[in-house]
């Protein structure tokens, strides 16, 4: 007798433990017997279905299903009872459950068989997936939006390419005519023209050429934006030396001291790096035109804890108050009569450096020169 | 050889006038045959006409109506008569792809027409030197 009551007590204790575990579970849990009758239901499930506990205990589990699914569910339940194993219910189907107030909601249900002294039971964990479904729907909608935007972008890109091509061909032809015919007239009329008239002809020509440069610079900016980047190790020093050599040949009368540190290897796209270095050295060359002893230095430095390539000059410089405007297209910090330019070069460089996963910034002081810093993925000096 | 013609394939009348002026100021007095589009150029070269021309040099714009410049270039290279005729592509484009495809299609040279007329005249001057070279080959020693 004593033994039996002890065994009963142990059983009761273990059942109490089991119930406590079920109650503490974060999911709604219902346990049914093999006839589909609800024998246990935790508070989460009560909350989920909005019933009182006593209203569900002893009821068929089909009470919690939309009427249209009840028959089918009964059959499925019988099949499950014949070959029970732990699994998700209705994988790939949109399962629905029914609250007391007859409203439906989407659920995910996992089933596992439990063998007990009082027979086979089925353990059902039920999760309300309304929020997750909503999220999935939102993500799908966002994805669709993205796909359509991507499509739009590709179209715009194609149009832009066609546009640049047309600009490159068609916009320059009239300028060539303006400059060419003014030039021919200027020489054939030379004896009849007074100084001012000749000056006007020259202004027409200068304007046409200015516009031609502007078109070229704009096209370069557009091309850089569209360019595919192929990163590889490039010897920046060699690129720089070639640029300097070209500048010396174009303006042999200028005497500029240029120092280029040897073998500066950087991670870059060769074509885009060429554009960047050409722009920066040409700028340094241009802005040192009015100093007695012009210096340009290109070398590796440590800045903000990283290796950078610095391009310094002792030219006109600029007011640091405008430093943030420097890389905006069409922003010029000097008058055209002092230093001609289109104000597109540095914007192009900023775009290139962003494409190379790098950065460009500048420091300067008016009258004391400017320093431009290029941060690449890696800067290496083989010497 | 000296009096052989130059075929200028150019649809823009302004460019034609400037080109003629530049050629003249470089003392190139050859007959210049002008074709205003690719179709005209092909007809003058290969068409069933009374006097199909056999130019010593072809100056070719790329951006042409009806038949584009590169198509003309391909047909010129495919034809036995003009297979070896020097072709200089002269165009406004700064596009690298234009330059590459011109050379791929068999252009001998590629020149970007400058906006600055002085530069334009210089380019034609270089062209006339090239012209002299192909017309007056060095004598065998």
TrEMBL record, chain A:
Domain PAS: from-to ranges: 14-66
Catalyses which reaction(s): ATP + protein L-histidine = ADP + protein N-phospho-L-histidine
Domain PAC residues, every copy: 91-141
EC number, UniProt record: 2.7.13.3
Record Gene3D superfamilies: 1.10.287.130, Histidine kinase-like ATPase, C-terminal domain, PAS domain
Keyword line: Kinase, Membrane, Phosphoprotein, Transferase
UniProt KW tRNA-binding keyword: no
InterPro entries reported for this sequence: BphY/WalK/GraS-like, HATPase_C_sf, HATPase_dom, His_kinase_dom, HisK_dim/P_dom, HisK_dim/P_sf, PAS, PAS-assoc_C
Matching Pfam families: HATPase_c, HisKA, PAS_9
Highest rank taxon of the organism: Bacteria
SMART domains attached to this UniProt entry: HATPase_c (SM00387), HisKA (SM00388), PAS (SM00091)
Keyword Phosphoprotein: yes
Every Histidine kinase domain range: 166-380
Residue ranges that the Swiss-Prot or TrEMBL entry lists as coiled coil: none
Signal peptide bounds: none
Gene Ontology molecular function terms on file: kinase activity
Protein name: histidine kinase
Originating species: Pseudomonas neustonica
Automatic annotation (TrEMBL), chain B:
InterPro entries: CheY-like_superfamily (IPR011006), Sig_transdc_resp-reg_receiver (IPR001789), TCS_response_regulator (IPR052893)
Sites bearing 4-aspartylphosphate, chain numbering: 61
Keywords of this entry: Phosphoprotein
Protein's organism: Pseudomonas neustonica
Boundaries of every Response regulatory domain copy: 5-128
Protein's UniProt name: Response regulator
């Amino acid at each position: 007798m004593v033994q039996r009551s002890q065994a009963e007590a142990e059983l009761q204790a273990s059942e109490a433990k089991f119930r406590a575990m079920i109650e503490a579970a974060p999911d709604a849990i219902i346990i049914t017997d093999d006839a589909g009758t609800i024998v246990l239901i935790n508070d989460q499930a009560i909350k989920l279905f909005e019933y009182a506990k006593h209203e569900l205990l002893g009821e068929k589990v089909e009470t919690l299903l939309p009427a249209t699914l009840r028959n089918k569910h009964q059959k499925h339940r019988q099949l499950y009872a014949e070959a029970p194993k732990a699994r998700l219910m209705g994988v790939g189907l949109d399962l629905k459950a029914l609250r007391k107030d007859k409203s439906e909601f989407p659920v995910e249900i996992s089933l596992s068989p439990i063998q007990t002294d009082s027979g086979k039971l089925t353990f059902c964990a039920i999760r309300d997936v309304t929020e997750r479904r909503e999220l999935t729907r939102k993500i799908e909608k966002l994805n669709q939006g993205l796909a359509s935007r991507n499509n739009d972008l590709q179209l715009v890109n194609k149009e832009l390419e066609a546009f640049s091509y047309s600009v490159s061909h068609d916009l320059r032809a009239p300028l060539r005519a303006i400059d060419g015919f003014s030039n021919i007239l200027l020489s054939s009329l030379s004896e009849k023209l007074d100084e001012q008239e000749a000056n006007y002809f020259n202004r027409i020509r200068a304007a046409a050429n200015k516009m031609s440069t502007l078109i070229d610079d704009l096209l370069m900016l557009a091309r850089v934006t569209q360019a595919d980047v192929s990163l590889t190790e490039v010897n920046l020093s060699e690129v720089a030396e070639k640029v300097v050599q070209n500048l010396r040949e174009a303006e042999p009368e200028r005497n500029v001291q240029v120092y280029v540190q040897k073998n500066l290897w950087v991670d870059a796209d060769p074509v885009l790096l060429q554009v960047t270095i050409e722009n920066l050295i040409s700028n340094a060359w241009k802005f040192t035109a009015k100093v007695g002893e012009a210096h340009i230095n290109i070398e590796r430095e440590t800045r903000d804890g990283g290796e950078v390539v610095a391009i310094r000059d002792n030219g006109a410089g600029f007011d640091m108050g405008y430093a943030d405007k420097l890389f905006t297209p069409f922003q010029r910090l000097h008058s055209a009569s002092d230093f001609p330019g289109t104000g597109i070069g540095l914007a192009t460089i900023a775009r290139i450096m962003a494409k190379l996963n790098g950065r460009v910034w500048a420091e300067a002081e008016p009258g004391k020169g400017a320093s431009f810093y290029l941060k690449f993925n890696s800067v290496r000096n083989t010497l | 050889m000296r009096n052989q013609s130059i075929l200028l394939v150019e649809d823009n009348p302004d460019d034609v006038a400037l080109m003629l002026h530049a050629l003249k100021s470089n003392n190139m007095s050859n007959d210049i045959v002008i074709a205003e589009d690719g179709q005209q150029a092909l007809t003058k070269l290969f068409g069933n006409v009374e006097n199909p021309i056999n130019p010593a040099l072809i100056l070719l714009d790329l951006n042409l109506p009806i038949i584009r410049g590169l198509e003309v270039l391909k047909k010129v290279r495919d034809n036995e008569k003009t297979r070896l005729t020097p072709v200089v592509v002269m165009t406004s484009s700064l596009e690298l792809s234009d330059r590459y495809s011109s050379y791929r299609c068999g252009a001998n040279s590629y020149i970007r027409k400058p906006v600055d007329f002085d530069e334009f005249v210089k380019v034609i001057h270089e062209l006339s030197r090239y012209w002299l070279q192909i017309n007056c080959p060095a004598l065998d020693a």
